[in-house]
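User: My advisor, Dr. K., asked me to get a structural model of this assembly before our group meeting. I'm new to this, so sorry if the format is off. These are the inputs:
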Amino acid sequence: MKYIDKLRNSGLRPTKQRLQICEVLFNTEKTFHFTINQLEQKIKDSIDNKISLATVYNTVHAFEKKGYLKQIPINSNQTYFDTNVTDHHHFYDLKDQKLIDLENSDVGPINIKKKINGKRIKSVEVLVKLED
Amino acid sequence: MKYIDKLRNSGLRPTKQRLQICEVLFNTEKTFHFTINQLEQKIKDSIDNKISLATVYNTVHAFEKKGYLKQIPINSNQTYFDTNVTDHHHFYDLKDQKLIDLENSDVGPINIKKKINGKRIKSVEVLVKLED
DNA sequence: CACTTATTTAGAATCATTATAAACTGGCTA
DNA sequence: TAGCCAGTTTATAATGATTCTAAATAAGTG
Ligand SMILES: [Mn+2]
Ligand SMILES: [Mn+2]
Ligand SMILES: [Zn+2]
Ligand SMILES: [Zn+2]
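Assistant: The format is fine. Below is the predicted structure of the whole assembly, which you can bring to the meeting.
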């Protein structure tokens, strides 16, 4: 199975719950952005058994740690995650509270001129807020 | 007084509490980043009377709405604010959980090529995560 | 199967933030 | 200056996302 190896290779046991969450997160045409509550709803809509909220949190954090998900820095009372783990940026529609991907080519190269002693750059993320 | 006019001109009554918070926030050499709890501590350290936590929240939100403060988009359980309301960007030191200002000149112009119908760009913020 | 360790789970706890509603105050007007 | 009132402050409760707990269950191993 597609996700069994992915999980085993990461040192995560391929449990029924994790495999079902993998289907919801990764067996899609397009990548997407989500909060835990939105993911919980998606899971409810697509499987018959119940997965506890604690497991959804546990799984999302495990996947994030393994690099299969990333958090998007944004001001919201809920944490946003992204199934697109490539380097890219975001529009944030303030009215609809929706994230839209901005490819690197839509933004152009960003050259950070300032250096901090003993630190290196891990990521560069651009957030473009949109209003009507 | 310096802040009385500022508040009046914004349609905010210059109350004792607001004026004291203005002193803490704006009567400084350098701008700074803070969470509500950090600000609460600063207020306690610099005034004799008590200001309720609710008033600190109310005031910070009022000042943000008037453009005297801005939120910094970052993944944290607490909201970060900035007394520097000019267009600028941030380093985020993941280890020390500290924010460092990045001036526009340190980043260079950012040209967002993608357009979203009916929306206009309100702000462009760059977050550069630093690791050791 | 027997055993160990990881995982799931319901529910409680945490904690930043927001809501409530009563008391208070700044500013205007008579 | 007194009186009024909308705006503000305040203690406290409520909310809600997230994390914690500890017992039950499931996966891997020999
Ligand atoms: Mn958060
Ligand atoms: Mn927040
Ligand atoms: Zn994205
Ligand atoms: Zn700043």
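One thing worth pointing out at the meeting: Residues 13-16, 35-37, 53-54, 57, 77-79 of chain A lie near DNA strand D (CB under 10 Å from a C1').

User: Perfect, thanks a lot.
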